Amino acid sequence: MPPKGGNAKKESGRAKKAENESKKKETVAAEKVCYRGCVLTISDLNIRVYLKEQKEADKWTDGAKGGKGSKEEKEEKRKADLARKAENARLLAEEEASAPAKVKTPPKPGAKKGKDIKPAGPGAIAAGGPSTDGQEIESYSATGVDNAIELLDVITAKMDKASIGQQAAGIEKHPEVRRTAHIIYFHCG
To answer: Is the pTM for the entire model greater than 0.90?
Structure first.
């Protein structure tokens, strides 16, 4: 035997569903339009408009990038460039042919050249190179590799104020830091 009272939630859900179905049918009926003697819905018209727009867009893209027209234009441009280059080469050849050839006159047999070139570098003085004209040449001597390296450092050291300041900046001013650095160096070696 079925129950006397119905489920209220179930009943209200069915009522809403029926109401929505009826609204849907009304909107479909309202959307129908007469177009050239045919009854069409709005969705059919939207599809036709979309297809018409697609055809028009396709017409416009034919002339845009990637179409056959661009390949033809590139080929024409390349041929025009080749023709221009050939014309320039022809004009240059004509100009060179019409210009009188420059003839170099040989130097006269008794003529002197501007300056005598003297060699420079090691052994230049013996070869007649630059002379010192009474100036004394500095000479240094060192025995052993370590002393020679130290001598090179002294000779090549820069003595301007900026270089001396940079060297002084490298020296640690605080004795406690120097002490710990010496201890670490002594132990780690």
So the answer is: no
